[in-house]
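Researcher: For the annotation table, I need structure tokens for Methyltransferase domain-containing protein. Please keep the output clean. Sequence:
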Amino acid sequence: MGAGVGEVEAEGRLWDRGIQNWAEYQEAQFQSSFEDALGQAGVGPGGKVLDVGCGSGLLLRLAAARGAATAGLDASPGLLGIACERLPEGSDLRVGDLQELPYGDGEFDVLLSFNALRYARDPVAAVRGFGRVVRSGGAVVVGGWGEPAKCETTAMLFDVLALLPEPPAGSGADAANTPTEVRRAVREAGLPIVFTKELSCPFDYPDLATAWSALGATGLLQHASSAVGERAVRAVFDRHFRGSVRADGTVVQHNTCEYAIARVP
């Protein structure tokens, strides 16, 4: 996802551990943001769309429903296996590094990448690569979590990081983890931003056990559970999420997502 071959494989193995829980419970939390971005980017019949960091393929499935041809890149073979089952025959799905895109110049009309740029060892160079594979006049859409102060769940993730002796891939001080950092990388890559949007992105689960299964499937929590033990990670999770349980047992944490759209010159 933005490092050497060994590091990409290692990150893929982390995500492979929880593929079913991610695909079933967590990926859907971003669906409204995906739909909004696809609409604003003009994805429709006849277009060719690439999702970098496509996971189990929800964004691509939504793009295909709009009539677009779809391609996706991810570090996790397991998540790509689920994406393959979800997408029309002929979708181009590949395991790879977001900083070394295996596509031709100007091959796509729209590239989208949510919550993936953080894994690039050089976010600016990665965005230049995004622009390379999109035709002139096409759109590069980069998005993900909103600013930390507007995301309840981010506080839990920060406390999980505090358990670790050193930050894992995608969580270091030089990672493009916030909308401000993402926009800076896009601009420094020479792509003019033409549109930005912040959206409400609540995480909504039927119960606390499902919330744990969903977020426990992420690469960060898988890494932390291996490093310091699942019990320690679960204790942090419980401390942040018990207060989000409603009277009927459902769980809601309020977050935001942001994305930026740039046009390729």
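Researcher: And a one-line annotation?
Model: The chain has one domain: 5-150+170-202+255-263.
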